[in-house]
Every structure is written in C-alpha cells, then in structure tokens.
Model the fold of this input.
Amino acid sequence: MDGKEYVQKVLSTVQKRNLGEEEFLDAVKEVLTSLVPVFDRRPDFIKAGLLERLTEPERAISFRVPWVDDNGEVQVNRGFRIQFNSAIGPYKGGLRFHPSVNQSIVKFLGFEQIFKNSLTGLPIGGAKGGSDFDPKGKSDNEVMRFCQAFMSELYKYIGSNRDVPAGDIGVGGREIGYLYGYYNKLKGVSEQGTLTGKGLTYGGSLARTEATGYGLVYFTEEMLKDHNLSFKDKKVVVSGSGNVAIYAIEKATELGAKVITCSDSNGYILDENGINLDVVKEIKEVRRGRIKEYLKSVPTAKYVPDFREIWNVKCDIALPCATQGEINEKSAKALVENGVIAVSEGANMPSTLDAINVFLSNKILFGPSKAANAGGVACSAIEMSQNSIRYSWTFEEVNNKIKNIMINIYNNSKNAAKEYGNEGNIVVGANIAGFLKVAEAMMAQGII
Ligand code: GLU
Done:
C-alpha cells in the first residue's frame, strides 16, 4: 500500500466513525493529506497503524455541569476534555467557554494541538476542553460558580504530570484563577503545574498574556524576512479583539506596521490612523465591553456591523485572530484581489480549507495556525518549567525563548516542506514536522 492509499483508507474510517463532526473531519483531512509523502517513505509507520491510532483520542471525557445562576435558577451546561495524544508529554491544551462548543469542535482543536505542541519542541502532548457555557453577560459570581462546578468533575482527570489545561476563547485570567483555586481545594494541594495562564501572584509566567500575539508576529516576521520583506510600513488587518489580537497589534505596531482594524463577533473597527490599543485594552480587558464602543473614544474611526466584511479591507498583511472558519473562499479571494502578500493565523484554523487553497494557489505567504499561533502554548510549557523548578524568569528571558521557538517553528516547517517535495508550502511543512516527532515517539513506545 502506498502513502496515498493508506491515507485514503484511514480517512474513510475516520469519516464513518465521526459522522457529522465537520470541524474534526476537516482538520483530520487537512493534516492527513499532507502526510502522504511521509508514508511513501515509511512503510513501518503504516504497519504500526500509526494514523489509525493518531486519529482516535486516547480519552474523550464529556460531563454534566449543573450550577445555579444569580436568579436562583438551575442551569446545565456540557463539559468536555479530549485527551488526544500523550506520546511526547502530558496532555496540554486550552479550555474554551463559548456557546458553539461541542464534541466536534473540541476534537478538532485537540487534534490540531498535538502537532502544534510538537512543533514547539517542548515535551507536551495534545488536548483540548471546554464547555458551551457563555461567560458573556454573566456576573463574576456566576462565572465563579460555573468554574467551580466545571472543575468539580474535571479535577479527576488532570494534574501536573497528567493533563495541564489553560485558557482559550472565553477563558482568561479570571476563569483560570477560579479553576485553579477550586482544583487545589478539592485535592488539598498547591499544585502550580496543573494549570497555565495563572496570575503572576500564584505561579503564572511573565509574557504569557502577550505570548500568542507576540509569537504570531515573530513567526510572520521570520516568514517575511525569508522573502526579503518586513512589517515596516505595511498595512495590517487584524481580526478579533481578545488576547491574541491585542498583542499581535502591539508587536506589529512596534515593528513599524500600521494596524488599521480589529473586530468582535458583531462587527469591526476601521481606523486609518492606526488602532489605538489603549482604547481597545480598556474596552476589552477592563470593561469587557463591545468593540463598537471604540467610536466613543475615537470618533474619526469607522464601525461596520458585519465582522466578515473585514476581509474586504485593503491590506498588505492579514492576521486573523478571532475564531475558526472566519475566512471563507470568498473572503480569501477578496484579500488576494486587494493585493495581500501574507496571511498568518493567530486564531485556530480561521481559514477554511477552500480559503487556504486560494492563498496557496496565488502564492500568498501563508502561516497556518498550528505553527503561527504556537507561542501561547509554548509559553505555557515555559510556565510549567518555572513551576517545576519553583523559580520565575524575567519578561525578557521568557520573551526571548518564545521568539527563538517561533523562528525555529518557521524554519523547521520550511525545511520539512522542502525535504518532502513541497517547497514553500508551510501548511504541509508544519504538518510533517509536527507529525514526525509524535510518530517517532509512538513508534518507540509500542502499540498503546
Ligand atoms: N488555547 C491556546 C492554544 O490554542 C493555548 C493552550 C495552552 O496554553 O495550553 O494553543
């Protein structure tokens, strides 16, 4: 059996077994198709049933989360933790609290996390979790009660050597604090390495908040440099206004770019003078408000009440930092027609498969999320290291480590693409480079 036949065979089993899980099936298809040249060279991987094992989570936990809201009414949410692969280290990956969360989304994110975490070069396996709980509009007390109810089940399955959750959409410093406090209370321990993204007063790492956004820009800078380009004087469109977007805007601006947009799920802001980050931080980090409020502080800016329209804004570089599937084929074509030179993904899989094809076939420099946004989880692993040695590194030390990791991820992905006959295709390169380390580790450990 050659690589193509093997991949086809596994894909059809995965499709039958995970009916209706579109996001998960798309992610598996994207990764597996790029691995064909690897299997052409490695019949031993085929014999060991590597892909059959890799596409099946080691453990998928789903649980009820009952809690009482401020009106005394009982609410029931659904909680998930998908422990996908632990071949190279303890399961690691964020928790997402958003109404769209379901088993397919958590599985797709967990699957992606395996390769992303491997690409960081650090010893962390892949996992993801979350709930369909919506923190938006909830009081602090409701969020705390929900986090405690969620942890009262999750604590059975996690631990510093077992599975280390962190944040994702809807889970920031506040939620991690409540989750961490309750984990320790239930277990009667003070186990700092069990969650990352912690506050600085109780074991968090400097630069963790900035890590994903900064890392995205370091990766993109390396990709641009490789083609004799830079951020200097470039017009940049950033979507989103959460943690990833905010720090991507900050770093890109520091490197001389002009970032002219940001958005939330309602609409986007266009500020031709360059986004004023102090205003965005005040709205999002302090008031937890909507991005539309930007106009109150900067009346010369424009607000468009449809977030998808953001991809029609003319720019040199696009950094999608909101959520999965936000760039479809039509948006990708609009970006290309308007002369975009690079697209780099801060969110997890923001471009659909069709959109990625549009970018690649038009020779746009494209940084796929599992490579470009790995700075966050890399910093999480650095947080775990600091917790283990009970020491804290300075902002500069952590930031330098992240920068080096992002530069290595770009170069390793680029080299893997070349070695396997797809020069310049970072999508294929990142999949292959991420996969090979996990595959060798699985081979070494036998059929488990
Ligand atoms: N949620 C982030 C991601 O998608 C970070 C995960 C972590 O720090 O464990 O990679």
